[in-house]
Amino acid sequence: MKNLILIFFVTLYGYTNAQEKISLDKCYELVRINYPLSKQNEALNSQLKLQNEIIGLDKLPKVSLNAQATYQSEVTQIPFSIPNATVEPLNKDQYRATLDVNQLIYNGGLLNAQSKLKEIQFKTQQQQIEVSLYQLKNIVNQYFFGILLLQEKNELLQSKMSLLIEKNKEVKTAVKFGAILPASEQVLEAEIIKIQQQINDLQFDKRKLLYHLEKLTATNFDENTILENSISLETTEALRPEFDFFNLQNQQLEASQIIVSKSNLPKLNAFIQGGYGNPALNMLNNSFEAFYVTGIRLNWTLFDWNKTKKEKEVLEISKQLIASEKETFQLNLNRQLQETDFEIQKINQQLKSDEEIIDLRQKIVKSSEAQMKNGVITTSEYLNEIDKLFESKNNQKSHQIQLQLTQANYQIIKGN
Description:
This protein has helices spanning about 1-15, 25-35, 40-55, 110-175, 180-215, 240-260, 305-375, 380-415; strands at about 20, 60-70, 95-105, 225, 265-280, 290-300. By secondary structure, it is α+β, with helices and mostly antiparallel strands. The longest helix has about 70 residues, at about 110-175. InterPro entries: OMP_efflux (IPR003423), TolC-like (IPR051906).
């Protein structure tokens, strides 16, 4: 029995010494910082910077080199003769090389609209990451409150073991004086060993859940880590990140509509072309010459067979689809909130019953203890009442943790 007591206090010391404490909000924060998905924000920033640089390049002059050599079946000829002059016919093989420079002057603000669209797309992708990270909170809750429940059960088992060790001391004294049979001591010792086994099982279960929480948060926890049973239930005005995501999707479609509208506006370019060829600009000069041409060029699509109109209609339908998704999401959210609220009410009612049951069980145990000392009931019968008492306390702790989990889930559903 001395060994059993030693095991108990060594276990208790190892469990309570050098414990690391962590809160639920801290777990949320660790997931947000360390989860691989969060690292995409840096890549998205780099992507947006490059895309804006690419759009900016369209404002710079475009330089192109062109060269061609051709042979044609017929060339331009003068249909009459000139007295005292000889006009040589053009060569059927002709050559030309040019260097062309084009500078955008005006395009109806299309480049600025494209830059705006890229920025909104960037924000939409960022918000999609926020949505995914927010949904991980539910998984964090499962692990966190699972570990919390194991902690509470462990405390109950430690309390039960402490109680039985004290009772075993009393039984040993009674056995020594012949008041109780020696078998009573053995029954208690067997129960203490059983409880120690249950404590060991809880520690393994806790280690398993901590491992999953470590992988989710990318943080190493000590196996003696204690989760703080202090859940904030303050209600703040907040929205689910999905609503911002829906709004950004709408903004993205509106920006796309602006681009479609600007795609048919007039586009004005300045250009200069320098070249060398045979013939050059003078078609009657059958020799290689340098030349240049400069000016401005206007392009304006006056009729596109209603292509722009149809593209706008497609984008408008997409906006209607997003509005439908948002409405569906809101309906499901309201349903989940209502169901969770009912669950909270049910657990609160269970906790009221738990208090009454524990109060009655404690009175029964106190009566059984006196009966065992007087030899009216056996130690096994007394242990049976002890088990029922701690089973009631275990149910109470389970309901308390379940209530906290449900309340935390309610906050997540609501968007706090």
